[in-house]
Write a structure and sequence with these properties.
Layout (H helix, E strand, L loop, with lengths): L15 H24 L7 H8 L3 H13 L3 E10 L4 E8 H4 L2 H7 L1 H8 L1
Antiparallel strand pairs: 1-2
């Protein structure tokens, strides 16, 4: 067996930190969006509100919200709020713990709170 390493002649080492940096930026953006929603408490936040609050692009916020939702870190509160700048109703995102809390059961009714936590 040959123990020598084979290197791709087209490989450029300086390209790796850029991809590492983009991963780091995605994690940082995701964490900032999570913390933005956390700061809003049970009031929650819409994508547009997070865009305005954090200064990220709308597309970046949408992508990170999808990731957080997929990982069960945030939930759709079941509420919608009008975004003044877009004249449409948007999902109000809350931490997943808020969607399963007794407060949400008291506010929305037990059946609806259970449905939103599934």
């Amino acid at each position: 067996m040959n123990d020598s390493c084979l290197f791709d002649s087209d490989f450029q080492f300086f390209s790796m930190p850029a991809s590492i940096e983009s991963v780091r930026n995605a994690v940082t953006a995701r964490e900032q969006i999570y913390r933005g929603i956390m700061r809003r408490g049970c009031t929650g936040a819409t994508s547009i509100e997070l865009t305005d609050m954090l200064g990220f692009s709308y597309d970046m916020v949408q992508l990170r919200i999808a990731e957080l939702h997929e990982r069960d870190r945030i939930s759709d509160s079941g509420r919608r709020r009008l975004n003044a700048s877009h004249d449409k109703c948007a999902i109000v995102w809350v931490l997943a713990t808020y969607s399963r809390s007794p407060v949400s059961e008291a506010f929305y009714g037990k059946e609806k709170a259970i449905q939103s936590s599934i």
